[in-house]
Amino acid sequence: MKSVALSPPSDPDQLKAEVFQLRVTVEEKERAIAAKEQRIEQLLDYILLLRKRQFGASADRPNKDQFILFDEAELEQLLADLDLPSEQDDTEPPVQDKPAGERKKPVRRPLPAHFDRIEKVIDLSDEEKAAMGDDWTLIGYDTSEQLAIIPRQHYVIVYKRAKYVPVNDAIAGAEQGIRIAPRPDQILPKSIAHSSVIADVVVRKFVDGLPYYRQEAIHAREGIDLSRQTMSGWVIQLHEQLTPLMAAMKQFLYQGRVIHIDETRLQVLNEPGKENTQLSYMWVYGGGPPDKPVIWYQYADTRSGDVPEEFLYPKEEDPPGGAMYLVTDGYDGYNALSKAPGILGHAACWAHVRRRFVEATHGRKNTAAAHQMVALIRKLYQVEGTARRRPPEERKALRLAQAEPILGKIKVWLDQKVVQVLPKSPLGEAVAYTLGSGQS
What we know:
Elements: H1 12-55, H2 64-69, H3 72-81, H4 126-132, E1 163-164, E2 179-180, H5 195-206, H6 212-221, H7 228-241, H8 243-255, E3 258-266, E4 280-287, E5 294-300, H9 306-312, E6 324-328, H10 335-338, E7 343-348, H11 350-360, H12 367-387, H13 392-417, H14 426-439
Parallel strand pairs: 3-6, 6-7
Antiparallel strand pairs: 1-2, 3-4, 4-5
Helix pairs in contact: 6-7, 11-12, 11-14, 12-13, 13-14
């Protein structure tokens, strides 16, 4: 087989055009290859993140394994530029086995002082004391405490309502017949359960997370026939009874200067008009005055920003009195609410920001920078930990003196990184999220 050599064109202009076109083609392919490599890196980071979410610890902790791998000299220089301690302060040191003689003995915490104390005096037997005679004198007792419990006991309240009849027909009011004492007030009239039992069911379900079918089994073990349908019916009836209390709690919610809002996904089975695969949302509001805090849960079948806006500022009612600051994550659905007349300002939640950078520490690149931001946020947490125990004016002064400089350094750090990291990388998305939250 003969090979055919292509001869270049004799026209210089045509040759230049072909060379230019070839160069453009090569550059386009290089850009395409670079984009694919960037996409591969992004997908690999997503795989690591998904594996961590699926199989890793649920706590938001930086990746200590990755911390060992990145360039520590570079990290130390970055921290030195920001006048902050080493990143090692934010990660827990590896646990090292110590010799048995060097291990500290566990310290038992004292039992709560408000518990009743039942003293049990333990003495030597009469035979032993008789053998000691008068040569030994009691000088005191060696005291120790042990936690005990009395199993809960159900009891039955027997209501005996007094009944009266007139001695003869001439008595005033005799025509009404028998007079009987009124029934005592109950949260659920004519219910077989006392309010204490209903409160116990509600606390176990919504505070302790104990489903009704487990409570049903517990009651059956104690010889009580109480079905899950009955307990769920109680909760449904409580909605009407507790509506005035809810209205009062909502008024307390408006009296606080700060309101926190967050939403979480919720899947409801067999909900009318929805497939079981469709998600609903539980909106959580936290606010109220410091001495009367309120946590409010609102169910909604959508994540629309109209949900919190209509909750706080219903159209059929007058706007609530007072003004407050809004604290949320970076979800765009809160932007409309942040512009409401009663909102003084919109602040972002540092817990959500920190979670993004913690996830970035589990990535494949730029883990040193991610660890550094986690350390910066930890410095804010330390300031808040100190400020929380102080009066409001001292708290404000402490934040201005210590937290504000850290926030300034965080802003400088973010402005530097936003032009240096890949936008679709875990660190790039964390940086963009933080900047977007701060500007919302």
